[in-house]
């Protein structure tokens, strides 16, 4: 089902011969404190312009709104009451009962192992549930294994880096906008306005003007051996950066840990290589259904059904030729 | 809720107000002035009373869109329309050449050249960096309908240029000082015509794959039917253009093609709508796009009836041709608009996606969800 990527990983499949591991983020939203330091660090490092006019959006403490051309990290704030918390816990429990954790080895390696010794005496009663909770989650480009934006880019401006990330070359992109409609997560966008400088000083030319823009996984930092600005600045290690394989192991361990503490609402998003985008480079631990955070519940890369779409296109074209031929045969002089 | 003893001094909390209808509609943006922060003299309430609310089957993040619409404006709809006209006219031109209908051949070739020219200009105009349009020619990508389409448009434009130049040269009585170029053009006619025959139907249909190969809800749902809709629309538009420009005696095939196009257009639109989730269909039937598509249908019907009944009367044939062209243009504008509209409501993304996920789970596939328990 993976159309453009084999089991050896997206970077190897894209033709890179380096010995780079696939890099990615693990965003553990259960320990995000909503400080937005990642948003700030991202804007500063990448010199991304301001979005909008500093408006109050009326969505809790989130006045950023959404990911876009100028916003490559976005912290979501969701406020929920008791009833909703119970529902989240229940929907998480249903995921377990579906037998959905069956991906890869579980609890077998040293990382996934349960603590040794007899656990029967361990207190497993869930802690008192607070009557209100705040969900905070720092969203970012998913750097999909099968990236829709990369597949449809007609100029080759979007490429797969040696780290397995998906990066736009702003000096090649001609701003056709096809990638925007091919991203199942609504991440990439064309930068049509905005300026790097304050509004008063606008002489500086933005090299990304009129081109598609999104998170580069701080490609410029990675090639220097640094980690991305957002994960470097995250004060709670909610955002961790590293080798994708290690991070997914960490993520699974963390979910198990939370489940053991009665937080059955915890679940992973993007850690399944069999999903509609072949798994994501940025894995999230969520505490509710993905759509609550503004994430699609079942993203599918359009390329997956492209062979069928092309077949229908060919059929339509052949039909048109047949009808045109018949028109000439059937016409009287 | 107090967590520590230090919180004991806080005034008692009032019960939270419940507001809204629970549909998750986007709230109005408020300016800084409205929340008491305008002059900086006092601290404003940054956050309104929180709505702890939700509707039964649908959650979203403050009603904000999940996927983004492409930054495509009117020029793209113009291109979709003119690309169709060019593709259909290309087929008519080839047929007219094969069956020796010089009047139809000339008008179809010129229409094909004109529409592909203007359409390409519209495409370039809509780029974020129009000066880099040639970057499209850096690569050929099978996974990108836009890339393949660009090559089709460029090649079609080239051969249409050759064929159009021939016609213009003939119309002007070969007075232009072309010298040896003239014989070269003449020799190129057959190969150019053959290429046009191959590329015309692709030019008319690939735009369906272009829109279909997205995650825009209405287009995504219409994936299987958009190519048929667009080739039908192209056929009726090209037929209409020929009825408008070619001599009546020569335009017989154009009338048949147009009539078949009307039938195909109405049927494939119906089939497309029926195959969609109601939420994905809604943008095609309501609002500005709904109005445009309703008018497209009326005009197509009127043009089709006019073609069948009065196709041999010059004036009425031309009027029918105009109606058909307008119908095709409105179809393209309507489909584009419906797609752009469909991303605005996250419900159109969430509900169909949850439905298809549940369907797969019910069918026994439980290992392909992006959300996993570990």
Structure description:
The complex is a heterodimer of chains A (333) and B (374). Chain A has 333 residues and is of the alpha+beta class. Chain A is 27% helix and 14% strand. Chain A is built from nine helices and ten strands. Chain A has a four-stranded mixed beta sheet with strand order 8-1-10-9. Chain A has a two-stranded antiparallel sheet with strand order 2-3. In chain A, strands 4-5 form a two-stranded antiparallel ribbon. In chain A, a hairpin with a 5-residue loop joins strand 4 and strand 5. The longest helix of chain A has 25 residues. About 4% of the residues of chain A have low confidence. Chain B is mainly alpha-helical and 374 residues long. Chain B has a single domain, classed as Formate dehydrogenase/DMSO reductase domain (Formate dehydrogenase/DMSO reductase fold, Up-down Bundle), CATH 1.20.1630.10. Chain B has eleven helices and one strand; from the N terminus they run H-H-H-H-H-H-H-H-H-H-H-E. About 8% of the residues of chain B have low confidence. At the A-B interface, strand 2, helix 3, helix 4, helix 5 and strand 6 of A face helix 1, helix 3, helix 4, helix 6 and helix 7 of B. Strand 9 of chain A pairs antiparallel with strand 1 of chain B.
């Amino acid at each position: 089902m993976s159309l453009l990527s084999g089991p050896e990983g997206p970077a190897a499949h894209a033709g890179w011969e380096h010995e780079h591991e696939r890099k990615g983020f693990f965003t553990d939203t259960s320990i995000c404190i909503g400080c937005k330091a990642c948003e700030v660090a991202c804007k500063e490092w990448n010199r991304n312009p301001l979005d909008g006019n500093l408006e109050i959006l009326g969505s809790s403490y989130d006045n950023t709104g959404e990911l876009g051309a100028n916003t490559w990290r976005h912290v979501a704030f969701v406020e929920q009451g008791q009833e909703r918390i119970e529902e989240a816990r229940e929907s998480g429990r249903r995921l377990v009962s579906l037998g959905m954790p069956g991906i890869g080895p579980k609890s077998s390696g040293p990382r996934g192992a349960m603590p040794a010794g007899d656990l029967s005496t361990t207190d497993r009663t869930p802690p008192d549930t607070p009557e209100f909770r705040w969900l905070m989650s720092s969203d970012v480009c998913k750097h999909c294994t099968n990236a829709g934006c990369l597949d449809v880019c007609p100029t080759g401006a979007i490429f797969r880096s040696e780290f397995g990330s998906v990066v736009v070359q702003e000096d090649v992109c001609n701003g056709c906008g096809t990638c925007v409609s091919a991203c199942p997560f609504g991440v990439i966008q064309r930068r049509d306005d905005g300026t790097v400088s304050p509004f008063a000083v606008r002489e500086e030319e933005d090299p990304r003007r009129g081109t598609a823009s999104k998170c580069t996984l701080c490609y410029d930092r990675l090639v220097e051996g640094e980690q991305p600005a957002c994960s470097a600045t995250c004060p709670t290690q909610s955002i961790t950066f590293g080798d994708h394989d290690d991070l997914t192991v960490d993520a699974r361990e963390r979910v198990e840990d939370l489940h053991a503490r009665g937080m059955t609402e915890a679940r992973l998003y993007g850690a399944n290589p069999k999903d509609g985008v072949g798994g994501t480079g940025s894995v999230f631990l969520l505490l509710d259904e993905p759509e609550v955070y503004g994430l699609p519940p079942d993203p599918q890369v359009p390329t997956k059904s492209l062979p069928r779409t092309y077949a229908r296109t060919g059929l339509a074209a052949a039909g048109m030729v047949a009808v045109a031929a018949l028109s000439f045969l059937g016409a009287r002089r | 809720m107090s967590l520590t003893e230090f919180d004991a001094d806080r005034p008692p909390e009032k019960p939270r107000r419940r507001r809204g209808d629970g549909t998750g509609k986007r709230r109005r943006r408020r300016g800084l002035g409205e929340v008491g922060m305008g002059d900086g003299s006092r601290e404003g309430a940054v956050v309104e009373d929180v709505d702890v609310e939700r509707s039964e089957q649908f959650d979203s993040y403050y009603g904000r869109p999940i996927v983004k619409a492409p930054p495509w404006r009117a020029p793209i709809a113009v291109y979709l329309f003119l690309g169709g006209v060019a593709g259909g006219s290309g087929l008519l031109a080839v047929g007219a050449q094969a069956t020796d209908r010089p009047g139809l051949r000339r008008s179809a070739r010129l229409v094909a050249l004109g529409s592909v020219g203007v359409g390409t200009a519209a495409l370039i105009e809509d780029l974020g960096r129009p000066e880099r349009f040639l970057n499209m020619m850096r690569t050929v990508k099978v996974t990108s309908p836009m890339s393949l389409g660009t090559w089709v448009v460029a090649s079609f434009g080239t051969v249409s240029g050759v064929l159009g130049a021939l016609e213009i040269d003939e119309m002007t009585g070969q007075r232009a000082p072309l010298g040896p170029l003239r014989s070269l053009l003449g020799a190129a006619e057959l190969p150019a015509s053959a290429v046009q025959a191959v590329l015309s139907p692709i030019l008319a249909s690939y735009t369906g794959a272009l829109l279909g190969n997205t995650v825009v809800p209405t287009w995504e749902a219409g994936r299987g039917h958009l190519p048929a809709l667009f080739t039908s629309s192209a056929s009726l538009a090209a037929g209409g253009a020929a009825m408008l420009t070619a001599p009546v005696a020569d335009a017989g095939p154009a009338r048949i093609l147009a009539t078949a196009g009307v039938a195909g257009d109405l049927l494939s639109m119906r089939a497309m709508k029926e195959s969609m989730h109601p939420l994905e269909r809604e943008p095609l039937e309501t609002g500005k796009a709904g109005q445009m598509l309703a008018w497209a249908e009326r005009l197509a019907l009127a043009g089709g009836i006019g073609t069948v009944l009065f196709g041999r009367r010059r004036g009425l044939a031309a009027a029918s041709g105009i109606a058909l062209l307008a119908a095709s243009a409105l179809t393209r504008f309507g489909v584009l608009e419906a797609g752009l509209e469909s991303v605005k409501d996250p419900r159109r993304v969430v509900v169909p996606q949850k439905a298809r996920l549940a369907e797969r789970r019910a069918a026994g596939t439980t290992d392909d969800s992006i959300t996993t328990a570990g």
